[in-house]
Protein: Solute carrier family 22 member 3
Organism: Drosophila kikkawai
Amino acid sequence: MKKEAHGFQGWQPNARRHSPTPLGLGHLSHIFTCTDPEANEQPPAASSPKVMKAPANSDEDDVINQIMGDFGPWQLRSLLILFLCKIPAAWFMACILFTAPDLYPEEEYTCDTSSFAPADNCTVSLDQCYVMVNYGDAGYAMRQCRRFLYTTGFHSLTMEFDLVCLCDFFVAWSQYWHLFGLLIGGVAATKLMRVLSPRQIYSAGIWCLLMCSLLMGLVKDFSLHCGLRCLAAISCCFMITSGHSIFSDITAGKHRLGALLLYDCFWALGLILLPGLASGAPSWQHIYLGVTLSLLVIVFLLPWTPDSPRWQLQHAKDTQLAVERTVAILLEAARMNGGILKVSKELPHQLGQLRERMQEQTPPAQWMELWMGDRRSTFRLVAVHMALATFMVVNTGLLLHVRSFGREHLVSNTLAMGLAEMLGCLLALHLTFNRHDQKWQWAGAFAIVVGSIGSICWFLAEADMPEVYGLTLGLLMASLPQAAVSCAQSMILACLSDLVPSEQRSSLSFSAVTWARVWQLSASFLTLLRQVSPALSLSAFCLLVILGGLCTCCLATPVGDREPEGGALPKKQQLITYT
């Protein structure tokens, strides 16, 4: 009795352990070396013959899914770690709002005329950008001011490069290089996934991002700044793409679909946290320093960041090494999820058989095969490409458009845009699970309605009303389209697999997202319309929202291809996702 009591006290599955390795290795050693057949026999309650004896050609309920389950504490921990990469991605996208704010002429900067002529012979324009120099009998000459004297306390990037008169063009050009990095990073990460594991790409992305963030806070050259922004965007896309691949592999069913829909919630969370990080900084360098220090949290969590078990099993060159790595991942998941008894002595053999089946799968369809269907399917493919492109352009453009409401309201407007994006993701989750058959039409109709409401800002711009009312209406007309865009965009990225057969999913994902990111490059330059009128810029984005809503309403899930709340294992993962 003493021995039994002592043994019972030693087994405490809920107690905190210094490391999960001893338990996992002990159980692994037992099931792989024990020769007693009764010792490895599974109890009836823990394992059902119907579950363990899946068909040989079934990829929907393989041994990996049987051990890990659809969702559990291990998947929850992994999702929270992987979702964190969205926060710095949002910071690097939107930090230009705080590192290069608008400055007020005469109040915060004046033209330095010492390089032209004595001050008595110079007449400066009201915007402090042009100087009329009096040369006496030789006449007058109009010069563009290139050096300025600053009186503001915050040292911005436009002050660093003396581009206060070209602030809008500087923001558009700098943001263009960030968007170009997202385009290159998505394509590169997808191609690298053939030879490098998702976790290796994720780790390379965070270390490269940490280095780029540190250098961006130190360099004072405009060309280097743009180049580092491009490299930082590539690193962010590496993390987002590989993280998407990992959590798509370790979750299944409705839990995977929910994770795909909520992936952008952490992007919105990053926008909400950005004003708190940047509002009290005395210079743009301190903002990048704060972002760099925050990245150390993700670096600290790297040991707990999982890898994709199916990628390891399918792509590792050596069979034994592939099985060992997959077993290690499965044991950790089973231990934390409480399913360690599901691991049998036949696990290596079952994984070997699964590896053979995965390597014998037919390759994904080529891009041209997407367009060889009937007219209806081709029309839907065109619609999803157009919808995703317009939504990505509007998502980036509306975020930059908050500069039009004034620097004094930058913090509140950024918070409002982040909250709008989060509400849009939650709305997409609700529509997908509760309006499954009409989800596309609901999302498209919402986009059309709010886009139409936002378009009337052109008429309100000329109305005579108090400033506070004008700012409130302007913010409302920008936040509602942002929520609609976030809803439809999250739904499209999460449910692209519903539109085509399984063998065409990866080709459609790559094609649609790459096409959308090409058009996304124009978003930063559309914001230059605010120099004519802020209402013109907002109206242009709202018209694009209406166009995207119309295209979304044209989408429909084929009846024969509908799957109940997502399959347990997509045959080819969607390797590119929105950033």
The CA atoms of residues 31 and 50 lie 22 Å apart. Residues 1-26, 33-60, 563-579 have pLDDT under 50 and may be disordered. Residues 222-250 form the longest helix (29 residues). The beta strands are 109-111, 122-124, 130-134, 140-144, 148-150.
